[in-house]
Amino acid sequence: xxSVSLPERKVLFTGEILQDPYPTYxxxxxxxxxxxxxxxxxxxxxxxxxxxxxxxxxxxxxxxxKRAQQMLLPLPLSRQGEFRELARMLSLWLIxxxxxxxxxxxxxxxxxxxxxxxxxxxxxxxxxxxxxxxPLKHSSEVELMREFANPMPVRVISVMMGIxxxxxxxxxxxxxxxxxxxxxPNRTVEEAQAAQDALINMTEFFRxxxxxxxxxxxxxxxSLLIDIEEDGDxxxxxxxxxxxxxxxxxxHETTRNLIGNGIYTLLRxxxxxxxxRDNPQLIRSAVEELxxxxxxxxxxxxxxxxxMEVCGRRIPKGWSLLCMLGAANRDPKxxxxxxxxxxxxxxxxxxxxxxxxxxxxxxxLARLEGQVAIxxxxxxxxxxRLCGQKPEWADTFGFRGLKALKVIV
Length: 409
Known about the structure:
alpha+beta, 9% strand, CATH 1.10.630.10
């Protein structure tokens, strides 16, 4: 392996970044498109901040999505062996696969997430949101994450998968454990243990659920996944459990952040909230702008299959590369006035759902949930405003979302 000249490490993943990463992103973007960023205080990773390079890396077949094992690297070497099962279970998720396995699996799963299949859910989603907002009209002050943004997407994906309502809270807890592990580069043994326990419990649930659906087929997503077959391809049992978990996780975690971040952003810009309330036809472009402006997913990672040059840096085979999607979505070379909220922004090529072969398979579902939730909330509560105190952001760098959001309705 050729020698690699490494620059001074940049410190990025701090408490200050959790609260507001964008000034630091802008500063680093001014200095260049790629930086060597410290992780867990003991190692560092090349991180790409520009829109053009993030897009290029996401589409480059030399950059592998098989990164589940690398997630264990921040843990003490003596403890990493305890979490082989955690890495193995995550490696079965679609987002951690490369072609040809990824191509085969995505082709099978696409049927359940086509635009037509998702759009057919709109009436049911409108009804669900209305039912959840009704009780809020009797309150003067509401903690919106707890009462709406958290439960709404898990209710939607749970209905799609036929999961009993009594288990929704449990699945939210398991989902958060996985999010904390996945979204925190400074991972701890405790976080790894919680994520591994959550995955084991979810696998056991879906093992039983799949067995039940085989005896009693329904119209839910699990039954659809069991039935999916194309060109002789089928999902193996382990793939089936893993995709169910991944869909439930993604269907809850990122969408809760889209709703929470979106409402918070609009209430910080009341003129834009009023504009959207009065012009509901703007909701589609508004959600795209909210995804860009306050991205639920702040970064994604790739592992280099071979030595390659990125932004003028020669990076060896096997090294990880972070694509800082949140920074790319504020890149002034791609977006005019990137720090300004513009609900009418045209040609909004944000990377909130990544790009290339791993472009989020559930993007249509997330968009629809964001549109229905945000517009109904603004129209049902025209006097909605922030409670005053500064909200606290969750301790996950990769998944940006609020712990709580108090509003006056």
